[in-house]
Every structure is written in C-alpha cells, then in structure tokens.
C-alpha cells in the first residue's frame, strides 16, 4: 500500500535510544522494522556508540540521520530517515532531555546532567516520557513541561494556582494518598 506524501511526513522518528557510556542499552524504542530482531538492534546500537563523538551532535549512519546529546554518563539518540529534517529531530531530542530533566532533577546544580544510575532507578519515567513524546514514529508533543506533568500525573493548572508540584523526588506516597483521599471523599 502506498501512502500519500502527507502521511509519510508524519512518521519522522525511526527510533529513540538511551545508551550508557559503554554503549549499553538503557532504553530503546524502535518505531520501524528497519533493524528487525534484537541482535540487529544491539549491533546498530554498538555501531552508533562507536561512531558518536563526545562533542558532536549529529551523525549519518546506514541511511539514517541521528541527533544525539551526551548527559553525564549517558547519551540520548533520536534516529530519523536520511532525508528527515535535522531540526525536527533536534526538537524531539531537546524535548526528551528537558522532560527527563524536569522529572529527575534533584536540584538546580544538576539541571542538565542526568546520570545512568538515576535513569536506571527511574526507568519507568524514561519509557513514559518516550511514549508521551512519540507514538509509532509520530511526534505527539513538543512541550517538555507538559510531558513531565503528564508522566508525573501533575495538573499544570493546579501548579499555576499554587498547588503541589516540584520534582518527583519531593513528591511522596503520603501526598499521593492524601490527594486520592481528597478526591474520593469529597
């Protein structure tokens, strides 16, 4: 089946990957069948890790354009087709890293640095951010704050009016139960 050009244009992200400093997989979402089974995916990830330079931001590999960002001891990658707009892929990458930073930051000094241990401990948030950002290769959201709020199940309107918010590390189970109790009890 041949898709109209405007439908093809919707599918711009082929994969989102988060790899550690040795090239090991922390998170991988492939939105096409280009890499097939797991062994081919892992081989692509190793090849990608070897080709990526510490201070570069974009590479071409196997008819793909990959934009990436190093953050601490992890690297975030967004993979698109070779003719995809690099600025669009960069926007997806920025949204991904900023949403993760909003969710996982401990204080202002670590704002843009997310380490492997923190991501491994909060892997569920990482996958939820990816799912909120891209679905089947289609970019769903470009506002990192909105993604972080949805993943954390926070209401941005409540925060704007002085409600609870802040980093996930400051939200406790007791607060969650308190909110649930208030909702169910009236």
How do you describe this structure in short?
By secondary structure, the chain is α+β, with helices and mostly antiparallel strands. The protein is built from eight helices and seven strands; from the N terminus they run αββαβββαααββααα. It has two domains: 148 residues, Beta-Lactamase (2-Layer Sandwich), CATH 3.30.450.60; 32 residues, no CATH class.
> Can you count the beta strands?
7
Kindly report the spatial arrangement of strands forming the biggest sheet: 2-1-5-4-3
User: For the CA atoms, what is the radius of gyration?
Assistant: 18 Å
**Please, what is the average pLDDT?**
82
CATH topology of the largest domain: Beta-Lactamase
Determine and state the CATH class of the largest domain. Alpha Beta
Query: How much of the sequence is in beta strands?
Result: 15-25%
Order of helices and strands: HEEHEEEHHHEEHHH
Q: In terms of quaternary structure, what is this?
A: single chain
The CATH level-2 architecture of the largest domain is identified as 2-Layer Sandwich
Shape: globular
Structural class, from secondary structure content? alpha+beta
Relative helix content:
40-55%
Low-confidence stretches at least 5 residues in length (pLDDT < 50)? none
Described by strand count, sense and barrel closure, the largest sheet is: 5 strands, antiparallel
What is the number of helical segments per DSSP (H or I, 4+ residues)? 8
The overall number of domains is 2
State the distance separating the first and last CA atoms: 53 Å
